[in-house]
Amino acid sequence: MLQSLGQNLAFGLLIGALYGLVALGLSLVFGVTKFLNVAHGELLMFGGYASFWAFSLLNLDPFLTIPITIVFLFLVGALLYKLVFSQTVKLPEEAKIKNTLLIAFGLSVILQNLALRFWTADEQSITTSYAGAAITVLGVRFPAVRLASLVVAIIFLVALQLFLKRTYTGKAIRATVQNWEAASLMGIDIHKVYLLSFAIGAALAGAAGTLVAVNYSIQPAMGLDWTMKALIVMVLGGLGNIPGTLVGGLVLGVTESATSFFISSNYREVAGLVLFLLVLIFRPQGLFGKKEG
Amino acid sequence: MLSIEKINVFYSELQALWDVSLEVNEGEIVALVGPNGAGKTTTLRTISGLHKPASGDIRFLDHALGKQPPHKIVELGLSQVPESGKIFTGMSVFENLELGAFIPRARKDRNQSLEWVYGIFPRLAERKDQQAGTLSGGERQMLAIGRALMSRPKLLMLDEPSFGLAPILVQNMFELIAKVNQQGVTILLVEQNVQAALELAHRAYLLENGRIVGQGNSKELLSFESVRSSYLG
């Protein structure tokens, strides 16, 4: 009993880090541009298929396909921003959120149908030669693939944090978040900042997609589920709070696995939504956000 | 150096500026004064490219500004300290100054500029690692000016630098602005504190209801009956 509880919590933590990475791009894009990109899950799905292709055609290890996925999705993100989202930049904030919500919703339908055409509705997954390998600590199994995914997720979280805190471009992004007008008076081209943030957000969705393809499976209609997870984690972690996003992901992962252990796995998804509502009601600034933050 | 020729600016349907013309020559301190809502801030925002004029010309050192985006205008050597400073409160004083030197030309000379700005505002050097949001009103204004100076502007526009400062600090702030001007930076100053602004400036324009209604050297304007009765009491 105790051991299987431990096993459950371990899985919760492992998947939680992946949830954090899934939310990271959405949170970055929303924080910088105020676009609520509900097509985030579809970008993740494209990332999954990009990795699947590179894995099955080029015979690459899935973790080595991540750079390809990132570059591919970065370009897709930049293109989508240029073609559709950039039109909304001049709108006031509220109109911007509403309009981009509609645009992204339409986009998610288009991307799903494109995926259906390219890859059919069949479920695919990436199974590596080391898929069965695991490390056992105190009777709790840590599958190698999931551990590697955890490491990858944490690397991305740390890398984004360092990029935003240490580089000139990262500081320009933070300045734009705080006050875009003042940022433009510093000589920062805010359209470039938006474009870059959106493309980085898409690239992060792509990387998350690779991990999803390795740990679960991919199919064209998967996007919405992952967008939901990302939204829940974003709200838990607090907007623009990168360490918060990781912890938010872990909280969701553990809540889900505890729910399936103590109640029933049927209520797994419900638990996340309940958590989401509770946080919105009692701590709308996120679990770790400061008020007004 | 800067010449504005009959610009008209609208906020959607509403006209905010009517045929506004003004001129700033190299080395000057020019004040743009007038009551609240006269269009002073709109004038500066239009020069900086945050609003587009519906008609009229803005020229700065042989460049037409009317259609340029804000970041290009900064690169040409024209910086603005916006109303109430708008410093990046979630960053350190140092990071704010660093961002002031964002444009490539300024980034190269960042360390020199930093020394220059710390020389003018020693307080900023003392507080460089402090979060900008924890600064006092006067320090925030210093940071806003220092940050704008980091881009090495030829012309610096200041929007109400005395706003919200205690009277003794206002005097101090105006002395610092004079000091910046003596270091070779031309200044266009927007102020509601008419007396102090006219004492500091070489020339001034009086803006009312979106129109220029008076101009001249500061002494002339100070002696204008209408200015005296409306603004100086």
Task: Tell me the layout of helices and strands.
The complex is a heterodimer of chains A (293) and B (233).
Chain A: H1 2-33, H2 40-58, H3 66-83, H4 93-119, E1 134-137, E2 140-143, H5 144-166, H6 168-178, H7 180-185, H8 190-215, H9 223-237, H10 242-262, H11 268-282
Antiparallel strand pairs in A: 1-2
Helix pairs in contact in A: 1-5, 1-8, 1-9, 1-10, 2-3, 2-4, 2-8, 2-9, 3-8, 5-6, 5-8, 6-8, 9-10, 9-11, 10-11
Chain B: E1 2-11, E2 14-24, E3 29-33, H1 40-47, E4 55-60, E5 63-64, H2 70-75, E6 78-81, H3 93-100, H4 104-108, H5 110-120, H6 122-126, H7 137-149, E7 155-159, H8 167-182, E8 186-191, H9 194-200, E9 203-208, E10 211-217, H10 218-223, H11 225-232
Parallel strand pairs in B: 3-8, 3-9, 6-7, 7-8
Antiparallel strand pairs in B: 1-2, 1-4, 4-5, 9-10
Helix pairs in contact in B: 3-7
For this structure, what is the CATH class of the largest domain in chain B?
A: Alpha Beta
Number of helices of chain B: 11
Give the strand order of the largest sheet of chain B, numbering strands 1, 2, ... along the chain: 6-7-8-3-9-10
Number of helix segments of chain A?
A: 11
Largest interface (CB < 8 Å): A-B, 18 and 28 residues
What's the average pLDDT of chain A? Answer: 91
CATH architecture classification of the largest domain in chain B = 3-Layer(aba) Sandwich
Strand share of the residues of chain A?
Answer: under 5%
Q: What is the overall pLDDT average of chain B?
A: 92
As a percent range, the share of helical residues of chain B equals 25-40%
Distance between termini of chain B?
34 Å
Principal-axis shape of chain B equals globular
Percent of residues in helices of chain A comes to over 70%
Query: Strand order of the main beta sheet of chain A, please?
Result: 1-2
Return the CATH topology of chain A: ABC transporter involved in vitamin B12 uptake, BtuC
Count the domains of chain B.
2
Major sheet of chain A? 2 strands, antiparallel
